[in-house]
């Protein structure tokens, strides 16, 4: 008799997480469109857009655009914008706001090499495991022009915390997977893709280990 063991199946885990994300974010799309972005996040966005304007950048890709709140501000600032999100529900709301947005995964961006001058991704990449994060960062670098810049913000923690998180107040669907990395972990991974020109963290509340990690990274130039 041959015995078998139930070995972990990374692909099955990834597909299950993706199904949970779609259920959650499709259900949340309309409410998220009405939820304002906090002032500290909008300040980071305006500073990033000012950098792009100073460098005469024109095309911006957003990874994890949600309902398009940042996208509307990017377009209003005069940039050519493309948004992507895994959730069809989010994309439907973003398109209704007049944005060029399409369903796509951060780990498989449907664009040619060197298509965009800059990229923006907030509160998205912490939903990826380590292998997926590496793939997503490689994809972002691939679709940017040499010397392009990208801004990344994600929720992290003082200690590595991995697993599904249920929302206590609003039940939109299954718990979402979070991979909350430490500051050195995030900084190191981003530094592998270029020069980290800006970096800050912000605790979710005073004395909390849960924090927002934000960076602006410049990819290697044509001679880099």
Beta-strand share of residues:
25-35%
> Class by helix and strand content?
alpha/beta
CATH topology name, in short, is Rossmann fold
Helix content: 25-40%
Question: Please, what is the oligomeric state?
Answer: single chain
Fold and architecture overview:
With 224 residues, the protein is an alpha/beta fold. The protein has a single domain (10-218), classed as 3-Layer(aba) Sandwich (Rossmann fold), CATH 3.40.50.150. Helices cover 36% and strands 27% of the residues. It is built from six helices and nine strands. The strands form two sheets. It has a seven-stranded mixed β-sheet, with helices on both faces. Strands 6-7 form a two-stranded antiparallel ribbon. It starts with 9 loop residues before the first helix and ends in a 6-residue tail after the last strand.
Summarize the structure.
The chain has helices spanning 10-33, 39-54, 69-76, 88-96, 130-143, 183-191, and strands spanning 59-63, 80-85, 101-103, 116-122, 144-156, 161-165, 176-180, 195-203, 211-218.
Labels describing this entry:
224 residues, alpha/beta, Rossmann fold, 7-stranded mixed beta sheet, two-stranded antiparallel ribbon, 27% strand, disordered N terminus
Question: How would the blueprint of this fold be written?
Answer:
Layout: H1 10-33, H2 39-54, E1 59-63, H3 69-76, E2 80-85, H4 88-96, E3 101-103, E4 116-122, H5 130-143, E5 144-156, E6 161-165, E7 176-180, H6 183-191, E8 195-203, E9 211-218
Parallel strand pairs: 1-2, 1-4, 2-3, 4-5
Antiparallel strand pairs: 5-9, 6-7, 8-9
């Amino acid at each position: 008799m041959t015995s078998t063991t139930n070995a972990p199946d990374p692909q099955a885990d990834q597909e299950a997480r993706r199904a949970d994300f779609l259920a959650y974010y499709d259900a949340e799309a309309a409410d998220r469109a009405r939820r304002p972005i906090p002032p500290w996040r909008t300040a980071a966005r305006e500073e990033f857009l000012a950098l792009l304007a100073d460098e005469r950048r024109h095309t911006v890709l957003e990874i994890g655009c949600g309902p398009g709140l940042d996208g509307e501000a990017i377009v209003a600032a005069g940039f050519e914008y493309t948004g992507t999100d895994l959730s069809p529900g989010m994309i439907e709301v973003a398109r209704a706001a007049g944005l060029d947005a399409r369903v796509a995964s951060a780990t498989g961006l449907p664009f040619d090499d060197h298509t965009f001058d800059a990229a923006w991704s907030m509160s998205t990449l912490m939903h990826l495991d380590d292998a997926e994060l590496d793939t997503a960062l490689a994809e972002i670098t691939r679709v940017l022009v040499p010397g392009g810049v990208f801004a990344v913000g994600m929720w992290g923690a003082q200690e590595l915390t991995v697993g599904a998180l249920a929302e206590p107040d609003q039940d939109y669907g299954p718990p979402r997977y979070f991979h909350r990395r430490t500051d050195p972990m995030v900084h190191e991974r981003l530094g592998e893709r270029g020069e980290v020109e800006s970096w800050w963290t912000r605790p979710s509340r005073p004395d909390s280990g849960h924090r927002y990690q934000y960076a602006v990274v410049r990819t290697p130039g044509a001679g880099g």
